[in-house]
What does this fold into?
Amino acid sequence: SGRERGNVSEQDVAHAERLIGRGIFLEDSGDLEGALRCYEDAISSARQYARAHLNRGNILQIQGHLREALDAYKVALDLQPDYLGAYVNIGNTHMRLAEPTDAIIAYQKALALNAKDVPATAALAAAQETAIRYAEAVDTYRRCLALDSKHVAAQLGLARSLRALEQPEAALEALRKRPS
It folds into this structure.
């Protein structure tokens, strides 16, 4: 979208988009190094294009270069402060780093942009559960289920969190509501 472009010419964006498309193809084919080169070339041609930085971060995360991935996502956010995907990816990366408190902050920022984002809501609840903030996790899992009543991971997380809060009957009720 236009918001992902920053101050980049249409021609540079078109070239970067072609490189990103090639990168996505290579990524889907399992060639992560080739995909990374495409995303880095896209950044070279359109440095202010947030999407190129986000895609580069995704490859770095897959490769296990988690701190570098965070840096790439932060560049994307510097370029486009309302980039929901960058906040979600920062949260996901912090979870991989076993830093749930930092993940919670990132997911909350994503949800401030779109309170109805189901994946971000589920991820926030999981981070809260991991951080042993069970009461918050219960509220967030319930909010997620209000958005998507068939979200199995949210139903299971709700039951786990209720059980951790020593509410076994409520936990069983959450499990009974699971879709078959």
